Amino acid sequence: LAASNAVPRRLGGSDWIDPQIINGTLVDIKDVPYQLSLEHLFMHTCGASIVSDKWAVTAAHCVVGMPALLMRVRAGSTWTFIFNWMGSTSGVSKALAHPKYDSSKYDHDVGVLEFKSALKFGPTIQPIALPAEGEALAQGATGIVSGWGTLFEGSLFTAFKLRKLEIPLWTEAECASLYKEPLVPLTDRMVCGGDHHGDSCQGDSGGPLVSGGKLVGVVSWGEGCNRAEKPGVYTRVASQPIRSFIKEQTGQ
C-alpha cells in the first residue's frame, strides 16, 4: 500500500505530502469487510470505511471539490479496476467534509458519505465499530491499514487487488520526534503509524486504520511513502472534533 492520489500536494523541495500500502500482503475482502472503494467517474480514487448500512467515513480531501453526483462506492469486492463488475455499488447522495478541514495543512481531514441505497450486510460487507470520543490507543498498539493504493512512491498506477499491512502506532511525542520539521503542523487530530518496513500510499487515502476492532484512523497524508523516520499520518477518529462530526452526520 502507499497514500491516495486524490489530492497530492507538493509543498516544497522534492517532498510530496501524500495521503498514503507498501509491503502489504494480498488479502480477501472477507478479512476487511468494512473496506470500500470510492470511485470518481467509475475509477478508484480513495478508500472509505463502512460505519452503517447508509454511511461511510473517508478523508475530506477525497470529497472536497467533487460533486456527489460523480461518485459511487463499491463494497464487497477484493478487486478494483475500470468497469469492475464485482461486489455491489451504490451512488452517493451526500459527500460532506469536516467544516474545519484545512487543505493546506490536512487538518480535520475527515469526510462522510451517505449512500443512495442501503448496503446489504454479509460475509464481505460489514460495518466497523467506532471508538468513543477521547478513547486513547493502548501503549505499543498496532493497527491494520488496507487499500488499493500504489505499491511504491511515485507510481501512477494503483493496485488491482486489495492489500493490508500491520503497522506500529506512535504516540504524539514519538511522532513529533520523528517529524522534527514536518511540512505541515502535526495536531492532536492526527495519529502517526508505520515505518520504513511498510506504509500506505497514493490511492489509500480515506481508507481505514483499524486497531482493537475499531476505526482509529483515516489515511490522510505523509511526506512521501515508506520513507525512513517519516511515518504515515492518519486522522485521529477519537479526537473530539472528528468524532463529534461523524456522530452528528451519521448518527454513529
TrEMBL record:
Pfam families tied to this protein: Trypsin (PF00089)
SMART domains tied to this protein: Tryp_SPc
Keyword list, A-Z: Disulfide bond, Hydrolase, Protease, Serine protease
Source taxon at top rank: Eukaryota
Keyword Protease attached: yes
TM region(s), chain numbering: none
Any one GO molecular-function label of the UniProt entry: serine-type endopeptidase activity
InterPro entries: Peptidase_S1, Peptidase_S1_PA, Peptidase_S1_PA_chymotrypsin, Peptidase_S1A, Trypsin_dom, TRYPSIN_HIS, TRYPSIN_SER
Biological process, per Gene Ontology: proteolysis
Record domain Peptidase S1: where: 21-251
Family, per entry: Belongs to the peptidase S1 family. CLIP subfamily.
UniProt name for this protein: Trypsin-7
Gene for this chain: TRYP7_1
